[in-house]
Amino acid sequence: MSGPAPFTMAPDVVCLGExxxxxxxxxxxxxxxxxxxxxxxxxxxxxVACALAAAGHRVRWVGRVGRDGxxxxxxxxxxxHGVDVAAVGRDPHRPTGVYFRTDEDRATDAHEVVYYRxxxxxxxxxxxxxxxxxVADARILHLTGITxxxxxxxxxxxxxxxxxxxxxxxxSFDVNHRPGLWRDGAAPEVLLELARRADVVLVGADEAERxxxxxxxxxxxxxxxxxxxxxxxxxxxxxxxxxxxxxxxxGDTVTRAPAPRVTVVSAVGxxxxxxxxxxxxxxxxxxxxxRLRHGHLVAAAALTVPGDVAVPPxxxxxxxxxxxxxxxxxxxxxxxxxxxxxxxxRTP
Length: 348
Fold this sequence. Notes:
The chain is of the alpha/beta class and about 350 residues long. It has 13 helices and 17 strands. The chain has an 8-stranded mixed sheet, with helices on both faces. It is globular, with a radius of gyration of 19 Å.
């Protein structure tokens, strides 16, 4: 198959990484007991790409899929979200990755995920198979730690893309630590190296604790002193952003934004959605509090649907909610369907 023609203008964002076909269960229970599944797509970077495109930005996804039916489905589905897929490679020798999951929350022992991605087409991404020109014209290049875990070639690619060079796009790096992908104990060192080379870093307090033994936001910023912006995500408690101000004698500006209350359907994809909301606000030049709140709102859209990719709130509506004063923001309660028909609930 042939993909759509490349966009005529340079992208706002390039998201690079593996996307897979995901199979969602038809009912709760163990994978051994689920009789059928619904096909969808999943992948941290393509999730971010789709959400940013839905928010009105020009986005390119760069990845690698097999020359197979699942690869066709992935490319067509991501393109249907308004994402430029012209730079996606097709590998005739390696398959597109797939995975199956249960519908329980990832934080519980009942949650199961089974990946069939070893030797996938995406694991063959490298500086030789992904031309730098495919990412160099973006304002922002978004990467995650998942790619670094896929293969030595993928790690070499991330090291190449995060290396200092003239005209490099602003590099956004979501640590996105997936313990099951790291078999050699290298995750703490490798992810710290890559994060320190980025301009914007997003990291969960829980994963920072697992990786580097720190969970307090100030301590995490101490570990990640190099990036200009570090966002520490704290789940339902909200997020904290540290932003270096060169002209400020006090160093960082620290901004805290509580998360709104959300009736959660599925937590899958919420971190990717938060990244999309924050990066959208960054592209629009919004202040730090607004960027964090837009991250929370796009995450809330993902939290209230069963799949990995959700339609974010319309920009005007998100702007209205993000501009609420602290008291009104604190009463916000978002449930399923809230992005479509103004169903947010204010509680005393």
